[in-house]
Amino acid sequence: MIVERVGEYRRRIHAELKRAFADEHTPREVAGSFAVGVFITMLPTLGTGLILFVVLVALFKSISKIALFASVLVFNPVVKWGVYAASFSLGTLLLGPVEGVTMTDVSLSAGPEIVVRLLVGNLILAVVATVLGYVVVYRLVVSYREQLEPLEEAIEEVVDRTLDPDAA
């Protein structure tokens, strides 16, 4: 029973990867999906981001599941602590320090002033990461697909010659 489940998971993952590398989604859709994932993942959603991913995938056919969920690999829970620290620092730089609180005293229990600085900084960093993520992934997808075209043509040519020796 377990072996069958593992086999089924392997088949599903393999099928999803093949679909992700196929031309099922345009470069804009792949990049947009990744960018949306980055934006959601960067925000302090406390785990509800994954639920939002599932809802988005169910509602929109144009979303690339692989690209959307890949953003979680980039901004995983370990990395998010650094993002939160940078967010708070940026928020403090823009809004000023919280009176009576040093950097070593910072915690969410210190009050709404801390939360506001965290959210302001986090929103700015999320927007910047979203734009950068879109541009980088768009260029990667376009470059990857351009490299595949000559390979696909060469494979078609070999197959044609193999099936029809008179065509050569």
Describe this structure in words.
This is DUF2062 domain-containing protein. The chain is mostly helical and 168 residues long. It has helices at residues 2-21, 27-42, 48-59, 65-74, 77-95, 112-163. The chain has a domain at 27-140. Helix 5 crosses helix 6. The mean pLDDT is 80.
* Shape designation: elongated
The count of strands amounts to 0
| Intertermini distance | 51 Å
- The percent range for helix content is over 70%
Counting H and I runs of at least 4 residues, what is the number of helices?
Answer: 6
What is the quaternary state of this protein?
A: single chain
Summarize, please.
The protein has helices at 2-21, 27-42, 48-59, 65-74, 77-95, 112-163. The chain is an all-alpha fold and 168 residues long.
Labels describing this entry:
168 residues
